[in-house]
Amino acid sequence: QSVLTQPPSASGTPGQRVTISCSGSSFNIGNNAVHWYQQFPGTAPKLLIFSTSRRPSGVPDRFSGAKSGTSASLAISGLQSEDEADYYCASWDDSLNGLVFGGGTKLTVL
Amino acid sequence: EVHLVESGGGLVQPGRSLRLTCKGSGFSFGDYAFNWVRQAPGKGLEWLTFIRSKRHAETTEYAASVKGRFTISRDDSKDIAYLHMTSLKIEDTAVYYCCRGSEAIIVDLDYWGQGTLVTVSS
Lengths: 110, 122
Hints:
The structure holds two protein chains of two kinds. Chain A is mainly beta. In chain A, 0% of the residues lie in helices and 45% in strands. The termini of chain A are far apart. Chain B has strands at residues 3-7, 10-12, 18-25, 33-39, 45-51, 60-62, 70-75, 80-85, 94-101, 111-112, 116-120. In chain B, strands 2, 4, 5, 6, 9, 10 and 11 form a seven-stranded mixed β-sheet that branches. Chain B has a four-stranded antiparallel β-sheet with strand order 1-3-8-7, with no helix packed on it. Chains A and B meet through strand 7 and strand 8 of A and strand 5 and strand 10 of B.
């Protein structure tokens, strides 16, 4: 059972806009930044969004992050087949004194 | 180009110890924090620990699941971070990733190594 809650799966068709949610509490998302990671099968995760809404260099602006209260979201616009991957959210938890991850969302491009 | 390369994984019996190594290159190693994150087969990501830079006294934090059993350390002269794991359990079986963190945020994990597989089994 993950501290942050993500839907196990999401899907969309090419060109669509898809949103992945990440729900937490006042101890984590409500008081700290959220980071998002993308992972393809058999490879290491890659930082996609840091500090809730900032993109590392090289990440397309099709990816965006936002937060409201104790929930965060990752939006992918202009969905492409190569976006099919697992996505994880993470945030520091002040009560656990550690970084906590969501359980991951498997994105399928139909 | 930033590179992190983990090594030291393998098959180990329950109760034994293992030390993982993370070698960095392509950046100023001493300016960054380092984290270890693991992923059990077919499961999600689990953060384990971080160590801050020398400028921040190399302070550390641990997840409850490994506190007292795992120890993170670093040797900036060799550009290496370590994870010393003791009293290993079957449930510690996972791919272990070394991740870089910025000095300010620490847990933004902007670069990851390829991972090293640790299998705990008798």
